Each structure stands twice: as C-alpha cells, then as structure tokens.
Amino acid sequence: MNTILTSITTLLLLVHLSSAASGTFDILTYNIAGLPSFLTDNGVPGDKATNAATIGSKFAEYAYDVIHVQEDFAYHSALYEHDNHAYRTVTSGNVPLGSGLNTLSQYPWTTFARVPWNTCFLNEADCLTPKGFTFMRLQLPSGGVTVDLYNLHADAGDEQGDKNARHANDEQLLAYIAANSVGRAVVIAGDLNDRYTEAGRSIDLLTRAGFHDAWIELVRGGSEPAAGSPNIDCGIPAGRNDCEDVDKILYRSGDSVGLSALNYIHVANKFVQPNGERLSDHNPIRVEFAWSTA
To answer: Which residues lie in coiled coils (predicted)?
Structure first.
C-alpha cells in the first residue's frame, strides 16, 4: 500500500511540475512631455513633434515588451508613426479631452479601461485634463498566463492640496485594484509625482497594501529613504540609478502567478536627441520581471 501511495504522490508531483511555466518580460515607463508646445516647452529643447517621432523610433529599436507613456497628447501620431509594437492603445485625445495615458506592447491584452481621478488640485493644471489610470490584463506568451497592468499619472505639485489629491489618487487606485484584480499578479507603473523623500508622501499607501517598489528592492536593498530627507537629483538624462524619480514601477505576485523584479535601470542615455539633449523632462525607467506559475 505504501508503495502505491508513493507512486501516486510521485505521479501527482510530476504532473504538477509539468504544468508549471515561467518566463520574463520587461516594462518601460516614460512621461514623454507631449503637452502642446504653445502651453509649455517642458524645458526640453527642440521641436516637440520631432522629439515624439524620435521617441517612437527608439521604442521600435529597443523593442521593450511593454511601454507605458504619460503626457502623450498633441504629438501622439508622430509617436505611433515611428513605433512598430504589435499592440497599442487607441489614444483618448489631445488636451483637454485626453488623459495622455497610452500603452505599447508586444503582447495582447484581454480587457482595457480608462479611469479618471475623482480628485484633483488646480494649481498645476491637473484638473484641465482627465488624468487618472488605465487598466489592462496582459496576456503573456504562455497559455493562459495573464498579469494585470496599471498605468497612471498622479496629481502634480507640492502644495498641501496636491498632497491631499495624490493621497486620494492612490486610495482610488487601490480600491479599483481590490475590486478588479483580487488575487492577481499586478504591476503599477507611471508618473506618481511622489518621492519617498517628500514630507506628506502618499506612496506608503501602495507599499503598505503589499506592493514592492523595484527601485527600493533592487537599488536600495529594501531601505526606503526617510520622508523629509534630502533627495538625490537624478538629472536628465540620468546617469545613475541610486537617485529617486517621481516615475516608479511597483508590483505584487498573485495567487497563481508569481512575480519578481530582476533589474532596474534608467535607460535615459538611450533616449536623447542626436545632439545629446533630452527628449523629455522625465527619465525613462525599465524593470525586467521574472514570472512563474505553480
């Protein structure tokens, strides 16, 4: 009898192992400074349409698996014209109608939603466009394996009203995740307009909810900067990884799909104009993930 039970247990273990799958994928998040030039130049030299076209061509050249962009407004057509990703979201439009949030991907998704923030603060023109977040269920190149992706652009500014709005933004995002991504692997990426070094920061809402910040984990060895401590300015393009951006990538594992961050890197040196000038007033950030099922 013991021999039979052992054989059955071994067989079940082999079936279990044969059904496991694993792989990797990478995500780039990049605020591309696509507000109309008559509103702002974002402190970026050169023609904005030309810069958007250059960004699109570099998306195609480096072939990242998933790219989340923010502030993709007036020069969206130039961006997409020079990119070749197989799957791309349909833009929600220029200001004041669009959110500026789009995703370019090598892989398809099964669902997609745009959600505007319920709360904004006027001082940085945050209420002039429907900023918020997008949700998609990405299909990885292995049968039936999916990961929920969120791309966001939070309220900007340093006044207390901005801090209150960002706090409300993160609460709204977490409520949506709780309703739509229960037990699922999730990646949050985008322009959070928040830093650990800021007093009154809101990012703690996400980390306390079980999300791991790839920068904290891989670059800082798990140590968060203290709120109110001096910030290391990244500069643009960033030449180091130990500085802190407002652009972040966070993640958690799910019940059936495990995620782990393999590497975090500023790839800003790849996104420059021919003369070496910046293409945006933000740094592009790339994180590679390993995924597995059990």
So the answer is: none
- 75-131 pLDDT tens trace: 999 999 999 999 999 999 999 999 999 999 999 999 999 999 999 998 877 898 999
222-252: b (≥16 Cβ within 10 Å) or e: eebbeeeeeeeebebbbeebebbbbbbbbbb
Question: What CATH class does 27-293 carry?
Answer: alpha beta
- Rounded to whole angstroms, the Cα distance separating 273 from 92 reads 27
Q: pTM of the full predicted structure?
A: 0.92
Spatial distance between the Cα atoms of 146 and 185, rounded to a whole number of angstroms? 8
Whether 192 contacts 152, CB under 8 Å: yes
Question: What three-state secondary structure class fits 250?
Answer: strand
Query: Which of 203, 192, 212, 191 minimizes the C-alpha distance to 259?
Result: 212
Percent of the chain with pLDDT over 90: 88
**pLDDT band for position 15 (50/70/90)?**
very low
Site of tokens 């990797």 = 24
Looking up tokens 């502030």, which residue turns up? Answer: 71
Asked if 286 and 67 count as a contact pair (C-beta separation under 8 A), the reply is: no
- Stated as kind and residue range, the H or E segment containing 70 is strand 66-70
What confidence tier does 19 reach under pLDDT thresholds 50, 70, 90? Answer: low
Q: How far apart are CA 66 and CA 86, in angstroms?
A: 11
Residues 77 and 229: their CA atoms lie apart, in Å, by: 41
C-alpha angle 245-286-177 in degrees, rounded to nearest 5: 80
Give the rounded percent of residues in the chain with a pLDDT score beyond 70. 93
